[in-house]
C-alpha cells in the first residue's frame, strides 16, 4: 500500500490550489450572492487542462488518472463548491459516458470538444416525477424516419442553459422498464430543445440548475449513445464514478471550513485567550480533521480503484455518503466556532454550510447511497 501522492499529483494539486485561491476564491461570495455563473472561470480551467484531466491526449485530455481529477474537484470546492460541481458534472457525468460508451466518431466530435473545454457538458436524468426512482421517467424518444423524436422535460440540470452538450435519457420502449431507456447526445440549439426555469437555491448558487424542455426535438440516430435500451446501465455506471466526484466536492468544502475555523479559533480571543485554547473548541477541530481524513481516504481509494480498472461502485457510494454527511457536520461546526460572525456573510463559513447540504442530495440522496451499499453488502 502506498499513501504517497505521485509527483505529478502533487504538482497538479499545487497548480489547482494556486488557481483556485487566486482566480476563483476572490469572486466566490459575489457570484454566490448574484447567482452568477462565470464562463471565464471554466475557460481558465480549460486552459490549465482541467476540463479533460482523465482522458487520453488523442481526445484532447491530459491523460492523468481519476485521483488527479478528484484532487482538482477537491481544491476548487475548498474555495467555491459551485466551481467544483461545474467541473464534476462536466467530466464525470457528461464526458465519461462518451469516453466509455461512445463510438469513435462521437469521441472525435463530442469528447474532444468537452475535454479541451471548447464545449461545456451536462447530464439530464432527473424529472419532476422521477428523481430517486429513475425508471419511472416519462420523457419519450420515438423512432421516426431513422431519427428519434424527444418529448418531455428534465429538471435540476447542473450546467443547464450554459452547457453545449447534454447527455439526455429517454424511454424508447415504456413496456421494457429499465431496459427501455436510451441515452442521447443532444446539442444546445437543436430545434425543439429549450431551457426552462432556473432554480433559486440554498447553496451552490453560482452553478446554474435548470429545467430542460423537449418538444418534438429531432435527434439523429448517430447521436444515440451506446445501444438502444442501454440507457439505464449507462446512467447507473456514469453515476458510479460521478458520486466520487461529489465526494471530492464534499471533501473540499469540509477542508475549506476546517481551514477557516482553525485560523479563526487561533485569532479570536475571549476571556483573555484564543478560543482555540479551550478544549471544547480544540476537540471540535480534532473531530473535524479526523472526519476529513477518513473522507479523503475513502474518496482517494475509490478513485484509485477506478484508475486501476477494479470495481468501484460500492466504494464510490460509500465515499459520497460519508464525505457528504461529514461535510454537513463539519460546516455546521465551523459556523459554531465563528459564533455570531459565522452566521453573517462577512466570513465564508455560512456559504460552506449552505453548499454542503447539496452533497447529501444530488447524484443520489444519501438514503439512496445506503440502499446501493446495502444491496451490495447483502448480495
Ligand atoms: N451498474 C450496472 N448495472 C446496474 C447498476 C450499476 N451501478 N445499478 C443497477 N444496475 C442494474 C441492475 O443490476 C439491474 O439489472 P437487471 O437487468 O439484471 O435487472 C437493473 O440495472 C435495474 O436495477 P435496480 O433493480 O437496482 O433498479 P432500481 O429501479 O431499483 O433503481 C437505484 C436503483 C440505485 C435506486 C437507481 O434508480 C438510482 O441510482 N437512483 C438515484 C438516481 C440518481 O442518483 N440521480 C442522480 C442524477 S445526476 C445528479 O444529481 C447530478 C449532479 O448532482 C451534479
Ligand atoms: P425524491 O426521490 O422525491 O426523494 C425525496 C426523499 O425521499 C429523499 O430524502 C430521498 O432520499 C427519500 N427516498 C426516496 N426513495 C427512497 C427509498 N427507496 N428509500 C429511502 N428513502 C427514499 N439531476 C440530473 O439528472 N442532473 C443534474 O445535473 C442534477 N443536478 C442537480 C443539482 C441540484 C442543485 C439539485 C437539487 C438536484 C440535481 N439533480 C440532477 C437531481 C438530483 O439527483 C435529485 O434531486 C435526487 O436524485 C433526488 O431526487 P428527488 O429530488 O426527486 O427526491
TrEMBL record:
Residues 6-118 form the Acyl-CoA dehydrogenase/oxidase N-terminal domain. It comes from Oceanobacillus oncorhynchi. The gene is acdA_1. Residues 122-217 form the Acyl-CoA oxidase/dehydrogenase middle domain. InterPro entries: Acyl-CoA_DH_CS (IPR006089), Acyl-CoA_Oxase/DH_mid-dom (IPR006091), Acyl-CoA_Oxase/DH_mid-dom_sf (IPR046373), AcylCo_DH-like_C (IPR036250), AcylCo_DH/oxidase_C (IPR009075), AcylCoA_DH/ox_N (IPR013786), AcylCoA_DH/ox_N_sf (IPR037069), AcylCoA_DH/oxidase_NM_dom_sf (IPR009100). It holds the Pfam family Acyl-CoA_dh_N. This is Acyl-CoA dehydrogenase. It catalyses: a 2,3-saturated acyl-CoA + A = a 2,3-dehydroacyl-CoA + AH2. Belongs to the acyl-CoA dehydrogenase family. Residues 229-376 form the Acyl-CoA dehydrogenase/oxidase C-terminal domain.
Amino acid at each position: 500500500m502506498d499513501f504517497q501522492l505521485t509527483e505529478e499529483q502533487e504538482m497538479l494539486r499545487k497548480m489547482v490550489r494556486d488557481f483556485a485561491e487566486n482566480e476563483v476564491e476572490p469572486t466566490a461570495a459575489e457570484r454566490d450572492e448574484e447567482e452568477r455563473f462565470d464562463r471565464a472561470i471554466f475557460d481558465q480551467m480549460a486552459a490549465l487542462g482541467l476540463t479533460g484531466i482523465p482522458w487520453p491526449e488523442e481526445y484532447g485530455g491530459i491523460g492523468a488518472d481519476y485521483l488527479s481529477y478528484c484532487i482538482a474537484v477537491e481544491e476548487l470546492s475548498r474555495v467555491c463548491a459551485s466551481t467544483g460541481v461545474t467541473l464534476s458534472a462536466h467530466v464525470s457525468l457528461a464526458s465519461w459516458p462518451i469516453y466509455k460508451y461512445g463510438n469513435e466518431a462521437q469521441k472525435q466530435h463530442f469528447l474532444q470538444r468537452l475535454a479541451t473545454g471548447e464545449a461545456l457538458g451536462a447530464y439530464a436524468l432527473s424529472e419532476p416525477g422521477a428523481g430517486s426512482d429513475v425508471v419511472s421517467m416519462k420523457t419519450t424518444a420515438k423512432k421516426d424516419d431513422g431519427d428519434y423524436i424527444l418529448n418531455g422535460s428534465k429538471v435540476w440540470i447542473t450546467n443547464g442553459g450554459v452547457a453545449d452538450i447534454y447527455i439526455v435519457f429517454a424511454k424508447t420502449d415504456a413496456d421494457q422498464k429499465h431496459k427501455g431507456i436510451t441515452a442521447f447526445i443532444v446539442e444546445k440549439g437543436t430545434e425543439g430543445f429549450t431551457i426552462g426555469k432556473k432554480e433559486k437555491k440554498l447553496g451552490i448558487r453560482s452553478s446554474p440548475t435548470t429545467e430542460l424542455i423537449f418538444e418534438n426535438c429531432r435527434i439523429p440516430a448517430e447521436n444515440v449513445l451506446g445501444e438502444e435500451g442501454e440507457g439505464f446501465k449507462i446512467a447507473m455506471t456514469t453515476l458510479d464514478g460521478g458520486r466520487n466526484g461529489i465526494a471530492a466536492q464534499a471533501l473540499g468544502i469540509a477542508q475549506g471550513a476546517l481551514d477557516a475555523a482553525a485560523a479563526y479559533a487561533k485569532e479570536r480571543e475571549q476571556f483573555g485567550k484564543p478560543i482555540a485554547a479551550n478544549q471544547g473548541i480544540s476537540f471540535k477541530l480534532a473531530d473535524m480533521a479526523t472526519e476529513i481524513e477518513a473522507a479523503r481516504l475513502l474518496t482517494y481509494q475509490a478513485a484509485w480503484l477506478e484508475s486501476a480498472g477494479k470495481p468501484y461502485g460500492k466504494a464510490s457510494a460509500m465515499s459520497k455518503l460519508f464525505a457528504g454527511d461529514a461535510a454537513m457536520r463539519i460546516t455546521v461546526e465551523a459556523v459554531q466556532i465563528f459564533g455570531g460572525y459565522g452566521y453573517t456573510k462577512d466570513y465564508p463559513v455560512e456559504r460552506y454550510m449552505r453548499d454542503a447540504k447539496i452533497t447529501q442530495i444530488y447524484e443520489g440522496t444519501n438514503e439512496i447511497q445506503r440502499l446501493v451499499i446495502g444491496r451490495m453488502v447483502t448480495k
